[in-house]
Amino acid sequence: MDSKYLAEQGALATKLDEVGEKKILSTEKLSVREKLCYGLGTAGEQFPFFFVNCYLFFFFNVILGISAVTVGTIMLISRIWDAINDPLMGMIADRTRTRWGVYRPWAFFATIPMGLFLVLTFTDFHLGMTGRIIVAAITYIGFGMSNTASIIPLGSMVNVLTADYNERSQLGSFREFGSAIGNTLTSIIVPAILSLCAARGLEGASSYTVTAIVLGLFTVAVLALTFFNTKERIEPPKENVSLIKSFGTLKGNAPAWSLIFAFFFVCGYSVFRNTMNAYYGVYYLENDAYPFLLTVMAIAPFFILYFIPGITAKIGKRNTFIIGCALIAVSGAIFMIAKTNMTMNYVAAFVAGWGQVLSFSSTWSMIPDAADYGEWKNGVRAPAFIYSLVNFSLKLSMSIFALVISFGLAHFGFDQAQTTQSDMAINGIYLLNSVPMIAVGILAIICILPFKINAEEAEKIQIELQKRHAKEDSK
Predict the structure, then answer these.
(1) pLDDT averaged per 10 residues in sequence order, the chain, 475 residues
(2) Among candidates 202, 271, 213, which has minimal Cα distance to 58?
(3) Count of CB atoms within 10 A of residue 228's CB?
(4) How far is 296 from 308, CA to CA, in rounded Å?
(5) Domain tally, the chain
(6) Best CA proximity match to 290, nearest among 38, 55, 32
(7) 140 lies in which domain range?
């Protein structure tokens, strides 16, 4: 840390002691270019995530012939491992010190093994059923670990890019902008590649492998833009925080706990919407228009993204999150009413897209506030650890609700070996495509209510933390 920075922080501490609660936060404004490149990092992460979230269950179940219950079990086992892996990765990221920064190198370099495992996960090695199950489990867990090594540091970068409440809110919006770009492009690219492969006689598992290769390359390229066009400004404390001590940041941290549980249910919406879309289209709608439901859902955020920072500034992050969750529940109700009416299905997808962007953008901007609150209350700075727990809630949600889907499909008599399904199975697909979205939207609202950090509270916390950091650095 250079002498100029120490002098500035020492002067800041003196000034803060003199004027008390006035806003004198050292918060350099970020350029539009830097915000955009940070947001595009999420687009890069979204390429493989969207593909896995929307197509992997179908690929394992229908293409490889693994039973739905077994697929759900594989995903659950992976999440059990993530209970160890995610917090551990958060601690490792918090302890990393390189000339490129703390989190930035992880966000980029981990995309290389992530792309490799993505390809392996969507490859048919032509083994017997036992071999297929084992390879599916190993490659999927490998993808999850490498994804964690990239996505957790990327999300944690907000804490070192800026300390400004509104700037962090804007970064959350840019992140969702990137997510919307990633979702939109992937929802267009994947069907296009699969169709192109089919037209050239490359069908089945091979077409998915080709798609995975293309998306993996896109991911590495886009994260390179993030790596070379962002800058970590806030120096982390010199003291390394152990994994055990990292848990101390959660003591009495109601904002963190409420966010973790609320995000679990919000992500449940994503699981049901994305996973059931293929089943819903192929077996219930029985048309070729269903892939466009995901495209509509991905495009919808562009109609509101520009206004989200203003909405958040006016009503707060938590209330923005609540509105998003309410829209998710409403979209589930519209899907239920729509049945085979494609116009109403598109409306439901559009509303779901708005619900996702409002709830997710709020989540990303609330995580740094929860991390700062934990440091302010308990004296433990572990932003990547907090982010890892929120990310783990996402992965746990994916597995738990994927297991719910698998048992639900089994309960309603779905048989992946049959081209034509029973009326009971088709009705079950219809219900799984709508009812759970209503439930998770309501439950997420209930869980987020204890999160009460507004702009004024966040400013007070930042003032106190900067005073502490300045005094520590001057020693």
Answers:
(1) 44 46 53 89 87 87 89 84 78 81 89 95 93 94 91 83 79 81 84 88 88 94 92 70 73 93 91 85 81 84 85 92 97 95 94 92 86 87 78 81 88 84 92 94 96 87 80 64
(2) 271
(3) 11
(4) 19
(5) 1
(6) 55
(7) 30-231+243-473
Give the CA dihedral 228, 233, 234, 237, nearest 10 degrees: 60
Neighbours of 94 (CB within 10 A): 27
For tokens 């100029």, the residue is 4
**Helix, strand or coil, per DSSP, at residue 416:** coil
**33, 37, 143 from 368: Cα distances, Å:** 21, 19, 26
CA 409 from chain centre, in angstroms, equals 26
**Other C-beta atoms lying within 10 Å of the C-beta of residue 258:** 20
**Which pLDDT does position 288 carry in this prediction?**
72
Q: Is 313 part of any domain?
A: yes
Main-chain dihedrals φ then ψ at residue 253, nearest 5 degrees: -90, 75
- Supply the pLDDT for residue 261: 95
For residues 362 and 321, the answer to whether their CB atoms sit within 8 Å is yes
Helix (H, G, I), strand (E, B) or coil at 141: helix
Assess if residue 52 is contained within a domain: yes
Q: Distance between CA 197 and CA 178 in Å, rounded?
A: 27
Q: Burial-class residue 243 by CB neighbours within 10 Å (0-12, 13-18, 19+).
A: middle
Q: Which two tokens stand for residue 294?
A: 């995901």
Distance CA 377, CA 117 (A): 40
| Structure-token pair, residue 90 | 């958060």
Asked, for residue 68, whether it belongs to a domain, the answer is yes
Q: What are the backbone dihedrals phi and psi of residue 98, each rounded to the nearest 5 degrees, phi first?
A: -135, 170
d(CA 175, CA 169): 10
Q: What is the pLDDT of residue 218?
A: 92
Report residue 442 CA to chain centroid gap.
20
In the block, which residue shows the tokens 């394992």? 60
> Left if phi > 0, otherwise alpha if psi is -120 to 50, otherwise beta: which for 166?
alpha
423/282 Cα distance (integer angstroms): 14
Q: What CATH code is carried by the domain that includes residue 169? A: 1.20.1250.20
Maximum distance among all alpha carbons in the chain?
Answer: 76
In a domain, 5, yes or no: no
Phi/psi of residue 121, nearest 5 degrees: -65, -35
Structure confidence at residue 16 (pLDDT): 45
Residue type, 4: K
